[in-house]
Amino acid sequence: DGRETWDLYGAMRRHRLRFLYLNFDALGLAYALTQERAYADRAAAVLMAFARAYPNYRVSRIHKNVWVERPTDTWCGRIDGWLYREGLCVAKMLLTYDLIRDSGALTQADRDTIETHLIRNSLAYFSNYYERKGFLPCDGIQDHGPCWESIALAGAILGDEAVRSEEHTSELQSHSFIS
C-alpha cells in the first residue's frame, strides 16, 4: 500500500554483507596460522571487491528510504543505515587486510586501492562523524565500539603518524561527506 518506509533492497544488501563479513576475519586468521596462500587469495578477492564498492555506498537512515549526505547520528550509515554495523563490517575487513597484506595475494596496486578506497575512506568517514559529535556522543554509546575499533585498525595499518599528519587531514577534508 506504499506506507512502509523501510528499504527492501537495502535490507537485502545488508544481509548479504552481514553473511559475508561476520566471519570474514576467519580467512585472515586461517592464513596467519597455516600460511596457506589459498586463504589469503580468497580474502584478497573479497577485499578488492569491497574496496572498489565501499566509497560509492550512499549514507542512509536505518530501515528507511531516506538518503542523507553524511551520518547525522548513529542511525545512519553506508552499510545498512547504522554506524554500529558499518563499524563491525569495516573492522573485519581491516583486520583481515592486516593479516594477509604481506601474503603475496595482493599486488602493490591492490594494496594501494584498499588503503585508499577502504582504509582511508572509512577512516575519514568515521573520524568526521566523531569530529562533529565528539568521541563520547550520548546517542547510543554502546554502538560506537566497532567504529572506534575501525579507527584504531586504520591507524595501526597506516601508521599512527599517517593518521595524524596534516597531509592526511587535508586529504580527509577532500571527501564529499566532510564539510
Characterise the protein shown here.
- This protein is mainly alpha-helical and 179 residues long.
- It is 63% helix and 4% strand.
- It has helices at 8-21, 25-34, 37-53, 83-100, 108-133, 145-158, 160-164, 166-173, and strands at residues 59-61, 67-68, 76-77.
- The protein has a 3-stranded antiparallel β-sheet with strand order 2-1-3.
- Helix 3 crosses helix 5 (108-133).
Give short descriptive properties of this protein.
179 residues, globular, disordered C terminus
State the strand order across the main sheet: 2-1-3
Shape: globular
Number of strands: 3
Computed structural class: mainly alpha
Count of helix runs? 8
Which whole number gives the mean pLDDT?
80
Question: What is the percent of helical residues?
Answer: 55-70%
Major sheet attributes: 3 strands, antiparallel
For the record, give the distance between the C-alpha atoms at the N and C termini, rounded to a whole number.
38 Å
Radius of gyration: 16 Å
Name the beta content range.
under 5%
Q: Any low-confidence stretches, pLDDT <50, length ≥5?
A: 166-170, 172-179
Which H/E pattern describes the elements?
A: HHHEEEHHHHH
